[in-house]
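[Discussion] Sanity-checking designs against the backbone

I'm trying to build intuition for which residues belong where. Below is a structure token string of 334 positions. I'd appreciate it if someone posts a full sequence so I can compare it with mine line by line.
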């Protein structure tokens, strides 16, 4: 009797956890931000443990059904599924970006440089010969150093607070927000077209996982609200200073929020996430030694077609860099 009762308790607990997990990750209420700051598969692991234990004690079909429900949920809801869904797509390769269907592509990289705490990532960046690099956690003189290594003094660069951008092309205009770690630049392409590039570094994520305390829940809620406000302001500036959404725009950086976080929904209408669209392999970018969160992203408006994307480890940062190749166009590749 005890084993049977314990089995039902475990199944019921697994079911309640599943319902709560689906609600939190689907609706993303700020009050439960502490719950969604970790990957969904962590909670799924707990749920699977409960349902498997229930099968051991109960030997009933319901526990197997609950196990199947969790497996389906993780396959559908985990951000890491992008790399699996894009299996078979060609990744970016070191060296100059290869043309796509005979057309020249633009190679873009974003990387949090950790203030060169682990050394300069310039050599690792140069291997990929990027056209545009978005940099976060970097001082202005370090931005120039990377520009010189990548382009031999023939490129262009800008820095704002601890953000920077380097490019092989000419920067026509720079818009700074003195209150945030972001920058917006207009870049002139060899074709004569102008594109906007927005480089963001949103508020550092809260890390208090003492979920049994009220303070942790309050901290995570307030932390997320600030990031939402930061991104909203950055978008407002973009809309006020360009003909957005008619302006070709690349938007990326360190969002300090996983891909499932509600902050990214501000961009979902007008932008496509390069890695979700065509990324291959393990896309998580933090921490580089054990990457379990994809917090570094590259987005683009419909004027660009993402054709390749990859997250690559560098020993010179605690983040992995995200590489994406884009075509100028308005339709998705086959």
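Best answer:
Here's mine. Compare freely.
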């Amino acid at each position: 009797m005890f084993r049977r009762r314990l089995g039902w308790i475990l199944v019921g607990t697994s079911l309640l956890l599943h319902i709560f997990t689906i609600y939190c990750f689907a609706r993303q209420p700020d009050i439960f931000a502490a719950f969604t700051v970790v990957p969904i598969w962590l909670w799924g692991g707990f749920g699977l443990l409960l349902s498997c234990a229930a099968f051991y004690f109960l030997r009933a079909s319901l526990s197997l059904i609950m196990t199947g429900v969790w497996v389906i949920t993780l396959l559908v809801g985990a951000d890491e599924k992008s790399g699996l869904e894009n299996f078979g797509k060609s990744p970016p390769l070191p060296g100059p970006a290869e043309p796509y269907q005979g057309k020249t592509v633009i190679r873009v990289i974003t990387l949090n440089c950790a203030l060169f705490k682990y050394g300069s990532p310039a050599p690792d960046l140069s291997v990929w010969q990027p056209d545009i690099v978005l940099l976060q956690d970097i001082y202005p003189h370090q931005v120039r150093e990377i520009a010189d290594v990548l382009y031999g003094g023939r490129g262009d660069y800008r820095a704002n607070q601890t953000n920077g951008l380097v490019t092989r092309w000419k920067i026509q205009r720079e818009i700074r927000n003195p209150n945030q770690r972001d920058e917006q630049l207009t870049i002139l392409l060899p074709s004569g077209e102008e594109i906007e590039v927005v480089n963001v570094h949103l508020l550092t994520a809260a890390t208090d996982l003492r979920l049994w305390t009220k303070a942790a829940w309050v901290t995570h809620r307030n932390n997320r609200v600030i990031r939402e406000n930061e991104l909203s302001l950055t978008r407002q500036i973009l809309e006020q200073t360009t003909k957005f959404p008619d302006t070709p725009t690349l938007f990326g950086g360190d969002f300090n929020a996983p891909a499932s976080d509600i902050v990214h929904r501000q961009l979902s209408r007008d932008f496509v996430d390069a890695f979700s669209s065509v990324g291959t392999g393990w896309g998580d970018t933090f921490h580089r030694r054990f990457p379990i969160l994809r917090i570094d992203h590259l987005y683009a408006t419909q004027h660009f077609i993402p054709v390749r994307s990859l997250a690559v480890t560098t020993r010179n940062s605690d983040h992995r860099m995200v590489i994406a190749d884009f075509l100028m166009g308005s339709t998705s590749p086959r």
